[in-house]
Amino acid sequence: MHDQYGINAAQSAQEVAQVADIVFGAVKPGIMVKVLSEISSSLSKDSLVVSIAAGVTLDQLARALGHDRKIIRAMPNTPSLVNAGMTSVTPNALVTPEDTADVLNIFRCFGEAEVIAEPMIHPVVGVSGSSPAYVFMFIEAMADAAVLGGMSRAQAYKFAAQAVMGSAKMVLETGKHPGELKDMVCSPGGTTIEAVRVLEERGFRAAVIEAMTKCMEKSEALSKS
Q1: How far apart are CA 76 and CA 113, in angstroms?
Q2: How many domains in the chain?
Q3: Is 44 a domain residue?
């Protein structure tokens, strides 16, 4: 592994904790506190611990590691698998700006990353962590409609996914409000405004907002359990 990837393998989590400057906790939330408690004595005083466990707060992490530890909560999403992720980074008060910059640079190797205050992690879960699932549903629904119209399934997925990716790129690169970009597509009396009318009548926006609100509430509840 070292020869091929430049990775130094270890035999235990404790061994990793002894030698790593930055330790990433990437286990299930239900066992994160237990795992960190087991390695806390092996960490050096300057070690930085980064947790990507949803719902495990900075305070819970500090109780496992010690309140004198530098700790960061991070929330990536699944598009990180294709180098298009979005990650929130939330440092505690002991983390230096240099430490934060190092962690941001790591996560920016496979997408974008921003510093977020801890109370904003629940909105991050709704708008970024969980949202790929909503977008996949939207792509699937559009593809189903295209198949109903006679298009092949493979082409339908490609057209739908590319339209979503291109639309997102326009929002990020033009700086225009999404509503303005929508209006640019809607010709008077045309096909697009007819589709928009149906989505508005069926409560498209309200459904998305309600779904995300429930997602955020669930995230908050998990952090208190």
Answers
A1: 8
A2: 2
A3: yes
123 is written with which tokens?
Answer: 């909105």
Q: What is the pLDDT of residues 170-183, one digit of tens each?
A: 999 999 999 999 99
Rg (CA), the chain: 22
Residue 103 labelled as part of a binding site:
no
- The helix/strand/coil state of 55 is coil
Domain of 95, CATH number, reads: 3.40.50.720
Q: Which structural domain, as residue segments, surrounds residue 33?
A: 2-117
Same-domain status, 89 and 137:
no
What is d(CA 163, CA 93) in angstroms, rounded to the nearest whole number? 42
Query: Do 22 and 98 belong to one domain?
Result: yes
Query: Is 82 marked as binding a ligand?
Result: no
94-137 pLDDT, tens digit per residue, is 999 999 999 999 999 999 999 999 999 999 999 999 999 999 99
**Has 29 been labeled as part of a binding site?**
yes
pTM (two decimals): 0.91
